[in-house]
């Protein structure tokens, strides 16, 4: 018999009927003799409803109070699911963050979990209780309520699985698992049976919205296997686990895209030490996250610098850069919000050559111009014109044989 | 400068605009140099919305989980009000029960406050912060979330005022104060300027829905003056305070009524010791609260027994009594749900005679039959036919000169 952590997202708990479906699902696992810990998100739409109340109060709601507000969403679904379990005669108990000491730092709205006290949980499991815990929330050292950011319940689930020494962390969602790419864009997209933590990390941070990035980092660190699967089907989903030999034989596991960034270029910057620092310090001070940064090789004492920022922060970033550009005597600032980033991800890239050139050729064959390139050990990203996004995704998916009949992994 | 506790009820926090009105009100008090602690209820309708979610899950929601659910209502309004205060540049911080250790027993849904830890509150007040605390909730010794029952935020406010050694506890509501009777029934009803704890207790438990009974008991025990007043007006309301000479000169302070009870009579009970216990034990086991109990003087070995129960529990109580009546060989069980209880309350009754007979005469003059009578030191209650309720209230109000031109108290 195993100890299973099951995390249910907002769409799985979207209304009372769905909560009852989840309760039945939990009961099945419990009745097989497994220990079960359930981590819940807020009911779909609830977090947005709460945050819009805050916005009605003031344009800039206090961050500490926003966490006090938003954390109620998970408390509600946690209580309702426990009631549903009890009405099915399953012994069960709910906990919010302070009751099982989900300790975090004090970065309101994007706190990081430090540790979870598993004493109470373990005792309840020994009594054959299903333990239901509110995800997304924690408390800092002063007892303030914190939240972990969008998708934070995934991280709660993995952290709790780690603390309770669970055998597996199941993430229930409204899709069947992790796909080779977005099925809405590419009908040939195929569910992956297995994927490594590193690949999942690249997929998650590149725009596949299945798992919060931090939850995968956590799972990798503590080697907790994650099973991403559908609440509404019994089929096996995708197992996220440590890399093994089989995985290396697959060169590319998935294609992702991200349309939420904009590009800013500063041209003819006098090439002196400290220029990059001058440019990026004001942006960082404004809490704007810069993603890709490309600096061309300096020629005749000048250099061009291009970077991407979230579209939401693009105008702000542009203003700041224009000020700095003037100060450092750059020639001009060019901006382009109509871009997309398409990426291929695969553990096999480590040991295979020619992947990048295959990608570039495939895009060139369709007349798609590449504006920026960045690479890591297991991914290659290209920035292209936004209008080519879907085409690029389909072409790359096909180029690397990711379609239905190409499941090499199982 | 004083330390003021202000409690705002659900109707005062009914929407975002009203929350902003409350924030301005709090600011005014704070800017005069007072220390301010605010205790909030859930936004109007929110507790009902939450409890109806629970009812949709199961007809008999688990009590512990119901408290986890319901307590989110106050957490939301507490965060929103604090945001509103901060947006007015008032230093402010919100707390829920576990953060200021509002310790209660573990009677879920109707917990009693044991004590409140004022350390954090006092430190914040020293920093000139407005401290906003979620009412209605507490935690038991095991850290479980509890709630105090309907109107519980009043009790939270008084308990917090006691712990923090506040000078006054202001209860803000949608009426101007405590009235001599219900103005909807009796247009001559007049706002009382002052009333004693004991009178208020009788008024509260007899159906005047201004304050939770327990909050008045608490205030009496710790001698905290309560000021009941309107959120939407600057006029002075009603001060609930210790009894003094002036109060004794007023014979009757108010007239109350309650239509939420039903009457059950068991006739010709063989008069043996233990009969009452046999009758009431099953009712008490079913958690039904019995209000008035009248047993006639026993004649020729038989006795009649009449009592009242809440209308909601009336059918259940009737079934239980019918079973017992058969066992103890009583003649029959009569039931009447169409009753009302009208009462007069006044500290002056202690030292004045003839009050009861004046009440009975006034009712008789209108042809109103009295079915049951019960008295305490400072109140007299009569059970009458429900249809005469409004008439009885007006007649008694007039008999004891409670109208607009009869303010003897100030």
Q: How would you portray this structure in words?
A:
Two copies of one chain form a homodimer. Chain A has 410 residues and is an alpha/beta fold. Chain A has a domain of 172 residues: Acetylglutamate kinase-like (Carbamate kinase), CATH 3.40.1160. Chain A has 13 helices and 20 strands. In chain A, helix 6 runs parallel beside helix 8, helix 10 runs antiparallel to helix 11 and helix 12 packs across helix 13. The longest helix of chain A has 16 residues. The radius of gyration of chain A is 23 Å and the shape is globular. The interface between A and B is large, with 37 and 37 residues.
Work out the oligomeric state of the chains in this entry: homodimer
What order do the strands of the largest sheet of chain A run in, or round the barrel if closed? 3-6-2-1-9-11-12-10
Residue runs with pLDDT of under 50 for 5 or more positions of chain A: none
> What's the count of strands of chain A?
20
**Alpha-carbon Rg of chain A, integer:** 23 Å
What value does the average pLDDT of chain A take?
Answer: 92
CATH superfamily of the domain at 3-174 in chain A: Acetylglutamate kinase-like
Structural class of chain A: alpha/beta
> How many helices of chain A does DSSP assign?
13
What overall geometry of chain A do the principal axes of the alpha carbons give? globular
Largest protein-protein interface: A-B, 37 and 37 residues
Report the span from N to C terminus of chain A: 25 Å
Report the biggest beta sheet of chain A as strand number plus sense, adding barrel if it closes.
8 strands, mixed
Helix amount of chain A: 25-40%
Q: Classify the beta-strand content of chain A into a percent band.
A: 25-35%
CATH architecture heading of the domain at 3-174 in chain A: 3-Layer(aba) Sandwich
The third-level CATH topology of the domain at 3-174 in chain A is Carbamate kinase
In the CATH scheme, the class of the domain at 3-174 in chain A would be Alpha Beta
């Amino acid at each position: 018999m195993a100890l299973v952590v099951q995390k249910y997202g907002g769409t799985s708990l979207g209304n009372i009927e769905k909560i009852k479906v989840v309760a039945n699902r939990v009961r099945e696992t419990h009745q097989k003799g497994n220990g079960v810990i359930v981590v819940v998100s807020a009911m779909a739409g609830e977090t947005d409803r709460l945050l819009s109340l805050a916005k009605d109060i003031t344009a800039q709601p206090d961050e500490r109070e926003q966490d006090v507000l938003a954390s109620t969403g998970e408390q509600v679904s946690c209580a309702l699911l426990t009631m549903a379990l009890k009405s099915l005669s399953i012994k069960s108990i709910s906990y919010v963050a302070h009751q099982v000491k989900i300790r975090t730092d004090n970065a309101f709205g994007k706190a990081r979990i430090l540790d979870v006290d598993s004493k109470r949980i373990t005792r309840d499991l020994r009594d054959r209780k299903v333990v239901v815990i509110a995800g997304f929330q924690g408390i800092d050292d002063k007892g303030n309520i914190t939240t972990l950011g969008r998708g934070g319940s995934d991280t709660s689930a993995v952290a709790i699985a780690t603390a309770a020494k669970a055998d597996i962390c199941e993430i229930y969602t409204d899709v069947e698992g992790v796909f080779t790419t977005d099925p809405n864009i590419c009908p040939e997209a195929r569910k992956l049976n297995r994927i490594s933590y590193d690949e999942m990390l690249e997929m998650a941070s590149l725009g596949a919205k299945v798992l919060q990035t931090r939850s995968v980092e956590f799972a990798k660190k503590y080697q907790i296997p994650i099973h991403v699967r559908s609440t509404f089907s019994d089929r096996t989903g995708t197992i996220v686990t440590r890399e093994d030999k089989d995985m290396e034989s697959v060169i590319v596991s998935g294609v992702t895209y991200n349309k939420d960034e904009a590009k800013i270029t500063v041209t003819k910057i006098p090439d002196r030490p400290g220029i990059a620092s001058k440019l990026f310090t004001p942006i960082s001070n404004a809490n704007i996250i810069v993603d890709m940064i490309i600096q061309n090789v300096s020629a005749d004492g000048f250099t061009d610098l291009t970077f991407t920022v979230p579209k939401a922060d693009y105008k702000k970033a542009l203003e700041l850069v224009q000020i700095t550009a003037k100060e450092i005597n750059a020639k001009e600032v060019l901006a382009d919000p109509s871009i997309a980033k398409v990426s291929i991800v695969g553990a096999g890239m480590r040991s295979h050559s020619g992947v990048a050139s295959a990608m570039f050729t495939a895009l060139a064959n369709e007349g798609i111009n590449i504006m920026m390139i960045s690479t890591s050990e297991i991914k290659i990203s290209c920035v292209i014109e936004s209008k080519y996004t879907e085409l690029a995704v389909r072409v790359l998916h096909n180029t690397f044989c990711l379609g239905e009949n190409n499941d090499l992994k199982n």
